[in-house]
Amino acid sequence: MLNDTRLRWLILFVPVAVLGVFFWYGVADSLWKSFASPEIGLQNYAAFLQSPAEMAVLRRTFLVSIGVTAVCLAFGYPYAYLMTVTTARLRTLLMVVVLIPFWTSMMVRTYAWVALLQNNGPLDRVFKSLGIGGLALIGTPGAIMIGITQILMPFMIMSLYANMVRIDRRLLDAADSLGASPAVAFVKVFVPMTVPGVVAGCTLVFVLSLGFYLAPVLLGSPQHAMLSQLIVQQVSQLLDFGRAGAMAGVLLALALSVVALGAVLARPAIERGYGENT
Amino acid sequence: MHNPSQSGASLEISDLSKAYGSFKALDAVSLTARQGEFLSLLGPSGSGKTTTLNMIAGFTSPTSGEIRVDGREISTLPPYRRDIGIVFQHYALFPHLTAAQNIAFPLQRRGMPRRDVAVRVAEALEMVKLDGYGDRYPRQLSGGQQQRVAFARAVVFKPKLLLMDEPLGALDKKLREDLQGEIRRIHRSLGITFVFVTHDQEEALALSDRIAVFNHGRIEQIGTSRELYETPATEFVARFIGEANIFSGTLVRGDAGLALDTPVGLLPVETRLPAGRQASLVVRPERLEIGKAPHAGSDPHVPATVRDVVYLGSNRRIEIVFDDGRTGIIRGSGRGTDVGAGERIDIRWSIADGYVVPFSSSQTGDGHGS
Ligand SMILES: Nc1ncnc2c1ncn2[C@@H]1O[C@H](COP(=O)(O)OP(=O)(O)O)[C@@H](O)[C@H]1O
Ligand SMILES: [Mg+2]
After folding, report:
1. Is ATP-binding one of the keywords (chain A) (predicted)?
2. What tens digit of pLDDT does each residue of B198-220 get?
């Protein structure tokens, strides 16, 4: 039989090699260019950080991602909770409803939003018919948020569900026996124990939405651009790989900081035995 | 600090039943626990002990029957209004709270001022000998320590009734025995009523004032350890509590009085059951005497073959096989027990040491539940 450790290394090697060539190489290359193109130095970062227009885009990207994360959490939390307390049949249904969008192309789903949110589209007409003025969201950060939220919601729900389903319900009985009404038990026992799921879901959704490209392009507008659009513009139109690299570098740093923050926040839970790694 | 005579509640359960579909998990169970009593619910796994406890606690609603605490019907109250302490088998400590915060939880729910909470928590930690461990999270405590925290948390708000569901089930033997001693000590000092679920008859015998023996969702007998051991109501109880030699047959009236006609012979008995009834005779292992030759007097006696002898220090446990192939046990010390495997012996007992129970066809003889 093959040596166990060697087999494991072999199995690990293939994906690591593929990732290394196709993914990490790209990341490393653009980071390298951010410091070295056209010449060695920090001028690409300086230019980016000193441009008010580009900073506004960075700020918008950050705020839209925060908004998407908040909306995903606000809807995903009760949804995931419902999944853990309902009957097996309804749970399956709720699960399928979450997963169906995964079987539909992201492009199709985003175009569907374009149709729904456009000028004189269904939403706009409903608002107009109510006599409270039109609501054509297309081209606004609101539309971008809706598009991204719809695509990332399953990630939030799955992260929360994975956490909630593992919480020992006897703990809620215990709280009950100790004098906590169901509402108090929920707030004092259940919610604190879902911190690991909340942190995981928020980190995932926030980081993924930072780099979203399709939804901003189709649902947003040049006046409300997101950073990913700016990067593409630098690369494809201005051919400024250094500047694009610097933007990607800042985005990456932001994403990594959020991941690090998440790790710090989830750490007590892991140490106390109700986090991810238990 | 406590006034033991006033701090325990009485518990009365009448005709309590729980059905899951057509399956009766609990079938018309009635029992009472007196104020301050230590009552154990003992029975094999699946006999309905947890179901009973969960209905007292309010986690399960009865199909029918009544539960009264201090005379007050509580079946309709939600658990958090019942003011009953519960110790769960797997502790159910809140992992995100320290030991002290866990113990403070029921006090905070009752709106106790912060200062008083701190004092009470410190007292409770001291009571379970965990002073200095208040800042630890459950994860950082051993199984026995977690059980102590769970215990402190369940009594810190001074409930009048404490329910425990196999609280020592997950611990090793040595630790169980230590904690049994402490549970008894705390029961005496708090004076509250304890309802203690276990499938371990030794544990029940060691701790309880009285024991209710459960089997198949019914109570076979309620009594003191001694009553259950010496005068079991059913063959099931006789087998479940301690060890027993059991002979089954029909009661017949002979020249010398009533006797039980069994496959191993006619055994004289004393009982109020009438002749003609099917019955079982229970003789405890320590009541048997060993003779090398058949007994000549009027005492009941049976020939047997020694199968194995186990030396247990102060006494010996001798496994025997009767001539009908059934096995028996003798416990004793001294010269009479000096026998070896394979040896033919004659065992006898005084007629008063045999106890007759009515034969029951529903007898399962599960023995010691798991
Ligand atoms: N929720 C339930 N649904 C169906 N059957 C149950 C349920 N809870 C318990 N039972 C059954 O009721 C019987 C008694 O269970 P339980 O009270 O837990 O026994 P014990 O605590 O004495 O081991 C068992 O046969 C068990 O399988
Ligand atoms: Mg049980």
Report:
1. no
2. 999 999 999 999 999 999 999 99
Largest separation between any pair of C-alpha atoms in chain A: 76
β-strand partners of B345 = B304
- Ranges under pLDDT 70 in chain B: 1-6, 335, 361-370
Nearest CA in chain A to B153: A178
CATH number for the domain running over A43-271: 1.10.3720.10
- Is residue B3 assigned to a domain? no
Q: What CATH code is carried by the domain that includes residue B140?
A: 3.40.50.300
d(CA A179, CA A169): 16
Averaged pLDDT for residues A76-86:
95
Q: What are phi and psi of B312, to 5 degrees?
A: -115, 30
| Ligand 1 atom with minimal separation from the B41 CA | 22
| Whether residue B43 has its Cβ less than 6 Å from ligand 1 | yes
Ligand 1 atom closest to the CA of B214, numbered from 1: 22
Residue B171 domain boundaries: 11-228
Q: What is the CATH number of the domain that holds B279?
A: 2.40.50.140
Nearest CA in chain A to B161: A177
**Ligand at shortest distance from the CA of B214:** 1
Count of residues for chain A?
278
- Reported confidence tier of residue A20, pLDDT bands at 50, 70, 90: confident
Q: What's the average model confidence in pLDDT over A248-255?
A: 91
Q: Choose the weakest-confidence range: A68-72, A177-181, B354-358.
A: B354-358
Q: Is B61's C-beta closer than 6 angstroms to any atom of ligand 1?
A: no
* Nearest Cβ partner for A176 among B79, B139, B154: B79
- The three-point CA angle B58-B59-B64 to 5° equals 65
HSE (CB half, 13 Å, CA atoms) of B303?
10
The count of structural domains within chain B is 2
Any domain includes B252: yes
d(CA B267, CA B261): 7
Give me the interface pTM, i.e. the ipTM: 0.83
Q: Give percent of chain A with pLDDT exceeding 90.
A: 46
Which tens digits make up the pLDDT trace of B144-171? 999 999 999 999 999 999 999 999 987 8
Question: Closest ligand 1 atom, CA of B45?
Answer: 23
- Chain B contacts of A168, Cβ < 8 Å? 92
